[in-house]
Amino acid sequence: MSLSKEEELVAPPVRGGLSLGRFGAMREAGLIVIILALCVAMSFASPHFATWGNVRAMLMSFSIEGIVVVGMTVLLIVGGIDLAVGSVVCFAMVVGGSMFLMGLDPWTASLIAIAASALVGAGMGFFVTVVGLNHFITSLAAMVIVRGLCLVITKGTPLSLFTLPPEFKAIGQGEFQGVPYVIIIFVAIVVLFDFLLRRATAFRKVFYTGSNEKAAEYSGIRTRQVKFWVTVLCSTLAGLAGVIYMSRFGAATPTFGVGMELNIIAAAVIGGASLTGGAGTIFGAILGIALLSVVTSSLILLDVSVYWQDMIKGCILLAAVSIDHFLNRRKS
Amino acid sequence: MSGGNVLEIRKVSKHFGAVQALAEVDFTLERGEIHALCGENGAGKSTLMNIIAGILAPSSGEIRLEGLPVHIGSPAEAQRLGIGLVHQEIALCKDATVAENILMAATNARRAPLMNFAELNRTAQKVMNRLAPIPVTRRVGALSISNQQLVEIAKALTLDCRVLIFDEPTAALTEAETQALFGIIRGLKQRGISIIYISHRMAEIFALCDRVTVFRDGRYVSTDRVAEVTPDHVVRRMVGREITQLYPEKLTVAPGAPLLEVERLSDGAQFSDVSFTLRRGEILGLGGLIGAGRTEIALGVCGLAPTTQGSIRVDGKPVAIADYTDAIRAGIVYLSEDRKHSGVFLDLSIAANVSALDLRKLTRNGLVDRRLELTQAITLCTRLGVKMGAIGDPVSSLSGGNQQKVAIAKQLSVKPRVIIMDEPTRGIDVGAKSEIHKLLRELAADGVGIIVISSELPELIGVSDRVIVIRGGRIAGEVTGAMTEEAVIRLASGVGGNFADVA
Hints:
- The complex is a heterodimer of chains A (332) and B (503).
- Chain A contains 14 helices and 4 strands.
- Chain A is an all-alpha fold and 332 residues long.
- Chain A has one domain: Orthogonal Bundle (ABC transporter involved in vitamin B12 uptake, BtuC), CATH 1.10.3470.
- The radius of gyration of chain A is 20 Å and the shape is globular.
- With 503 residues, chain B is of the alpha/beta class.
- Chain B has 18 helices and 22 strands.
- In chain B, strand 4 and strand 5 form a beta hairpin.
- At the A-B interface, helix 1, helix 9 and helix 10 of A face helix 11, helix 12, helix 13, strand 18 and helix 14 of B.
């Protein structure tokens, strides 16, 4: 076809999340280089680093959070933010756990838990799109409310779920041919959403809305619907993560996931998601959380006190965002 | 040799990486003159003004102020030297009051630990009243764009300036406000202040300025006394080629069947009882002062704003338009007046911008078909002559005129029956402007009905086959045949008789 020649001449329009294509790819490449360099350095520094056991532990550690990062990235692209994800993860655990203890089979209990999480998202979406509050305040309130709900449901004490049937525990603890199911689920979700975000029409509207809401409205896009459903998506994925945690730990603690939202947002931002909307990729965000995870693991292996870890992670976030800002300024 | 020169620019160049924005340009400003600087977008006007105002550093060359070489390292330094700049894009604190904005520099220089708001408001009101009686205790964000522009100008007036630069100050102003501004600028001139006036509008330059300098492609072209040249002459130098005819031919045959019939449309607030008919192949102008309700009517027709009454027929068949999606389905599209704010997605690719209006057409199994998307974007951008790097580049990489063409390409992607264009050429250069005018006529010739809203009277009259004038949300009348600016102004302002000498 005659188009193929033209196509060679032009950059593809949607790489790097529709925007700044080459830059997006460059950022992802940069993150990969940093992660690899860190891994190589660490494998010299600690004999335990480059073992399958440690790699597996690292992958496990960020796989479940990674599912939440996927939803957060989409929400950041639409110009929103969700501070309630940590609470919602916990909420799903607690709801699923108590349903199970009430005698429901764990699969149904999990579905109800995920649906309840989606409902939290729908509530936030309602306040954002119908009442007209912003995402930050709405989700801040939701964070506290949902955490409170978790305490109410559990009366403040962890639910012990050791009676969960083994086939359900397998989700969080089992493996297929040596690869934990958790990692398989995580990779599947990442691949699916990365593809959808780059290619699907529905997600294209997310970029339009996040890039310029007014222009999107003036293009006939129902931006409020878009924002509503993305908010629901983010909470639903957090709910899914909560159910997987439940299966993995065989318990539901009402204080689980406190502060998780900051880690999630940091990962997405390090991976290139813009807090003002319109830009971001799933792949980048996953690299962001991988980087944070490798750093945490390195600090532990190097015997750095836990007290230092948060500080160092904060500095990494600041550095990543500064570099991003600097590069963006140079471009314009 | 330069006794009367306040400011002299000698062989100033500026590179951005490999791009040469200015190549050894010269420019002199005499004391107490109003000196127009013209050129198409990308000619280097704004770059030079940013250099003079200390925002950019020149790559080479010399700036002399009162005969002495100066180094202007920052906007604050420019202010100390007595150089003020009224920005084209409004740069105000939207959450502060008008008074706080106007006197920001004075507040910054103040030594007292506490604010004296009574005095602040009094002083600011005095300055503001010279332009328009805008209450200075109002929040800037609550003002209309044109009033914000006036605040921006008032802010510059408070500075003790020798040189004052106006960068397209009238882009958002009404005719009356423009005249008030001209009065002020002339007053400043009488006080010995020298003014650089950047504008695309020949009428303003010839009404206001003493000399005119033309830049083209980053180079100096000419400087003339305004009294000694004609607008045609200046336009030719700006473009560097002959624009034989400023506006395309009008419709020669009678327009076709009624295409869009709007009947007794009201929104209960901004406009009421608006009825008109747009025929196939016709370009209908919508005139009126800023704030008369032209944009609101357009938004109402398109379902972008709610209406309370009235009906709309397309091809004689009534259509229900509840939101913009319905309008698009009925073949009616709207090009927004505010390109950056609501027209384009600056950080998204050109292709993605063109696709935004109708994604369904490009969708296969829920996914965007990239091949179709590229074909559509390339076809339309080629047709409109968009000057671009690659179709995947962000729209922010394009000049204003080309961004506007991308916004128009987006409208054309749905093969519209009716296009409503709100200020289609605001802030874009002469070349792109005449290309867009030509395009409008071509579209009309293909049977599309076009409604043009423009505050620039020559344009409104130049491109339209007839003009409906809106005043206070109602149709004040229609101008047809040999249209004159005066006839439009009379209807728009509701003033008869001697209005001509005001405009």
